[in-house]
Description:
By secondary structure, the protein is mainly α.
Amino acid sequence: HKPLSVAREKLGYNSDDVIRHLFADYGVRVSGNTILNWEEGRTTPDADVLPALAAVLKIKLDDLYAQADA
Length: 70
């Protein structure tokens, strides 16, 4: 598992939950495929999305930056 999917699963969220929270709380629009690609390491979140994603998943921003740089 990648850090994103571990964090998501720890909260009991599915990708739709993450999508809803990103949009409702932060105005960030992403698709289910985008979330999957981030979790699989195929693509990385844009730097401007990382703070919202970290907040939604309740993880440290540094952990997301580490994954984005990997």
